[in-house]
Amino acid sequence: MSVPTVPVVVKLGGSLFDRTAAVVKAVRESGRPALIVPGGGRFADLVRRRDLPDTAAHWMALAAMEQFGWYIASHGVPATAEIARPRETTLLLPYCPVRRADPLPHSWDITSDTIAAWVASELQVDLILLKSVDGIRRHRTLLARVDRPVPTGAVDPALIPFVLEHGVRTTVINGRIGERIARALRGLPVTGTVIDTRF
């Protein structure tokens, strides 16, 4: 099966900090144009620990994403602050474009998950969320498909309603397993959770 030529947004979760090089390699080797959106990870956790007003916390958490973004870029990934369909593996520095558009509520219900979904919505492309979990579980069972909001801690509270409302086909997979990244980028079935209304 040939690699899809349509670009994709890939959110690289902060929990995968120690796997950054391997994830970047897997995304590049897939041959699919991908715009990587960084998570906040340990940088955002520092913000969470402070009792801050929502707006201050929102922009500080965006700045935290940018810090992880520069770490990803240090692995040889070209960086951009423009939301545009990539021609190769590219890293989005999200602070400036999100600050200009200010498209989302300022709340901890919104994290890098929904910010990545907003980017995918702007570009009208699919989203792959790379996490340290296999996907979304319900009563300990991994859900292969989700077409309505479900309670979960695997993604932020706003993510599922946002992607369903905006028609962003989203796949949540374990980014610690390189083969799953490769399969998802090639459009092949993969262990994880697909969030979409089109099944």
Written account of the structure:
Helix content is 37%, strand content 18%. The longest helix is centred in the N-terminal third of the chain and has 20 residues, at 54-73. The protein is globular. The chain has helices at 20-30, 41-48, 54-73, 95-101, 112-123, 159-166, 178-185, and strands spanning 8-12, 34-38, 79-80, 90-92, 126-131, 137-138, 141-142, 145-146, 170-174, 193-195. The chain has 199 residues and is of the alpha/beta class. The chain has 7 helices and 10 strands. α1 (20-30) links the parallel β1 and β2. It has an 8-stranded mixed sheet with strand order 3-4-2-1-5-9-10-8, sandwiched between helices. Strands 6-7 form a two-stranded antiparallel sheet. α5 runs parallel beside α6. The chain starts with 7 loop residues before the first strand and ends with a strand. The chain has one domain: Carbamate kinase (3-Layer(aba) Sandwich), CATH 3.40.1160.
Q: Going across the major beta sheet, what is the strand order?
A: 3-4-2-1-5-9-10-8
Share of helical residues: 25-40%
Tell me the distance between the termini: 21 Å
Radius of gyration: 15 Å
Q: What number is the mean pLDDT?
A: 95
CATH topology: the name is Carbamate kinase
Class by alpha and beta content: alpha/beta
Strand content: 15-25%
The count of strands amounts to: 10
Low-confidence runs of at least 5 consecutive residues:
none
Main sheet properties: 8 strands, mixed
Shape assignment:
globular
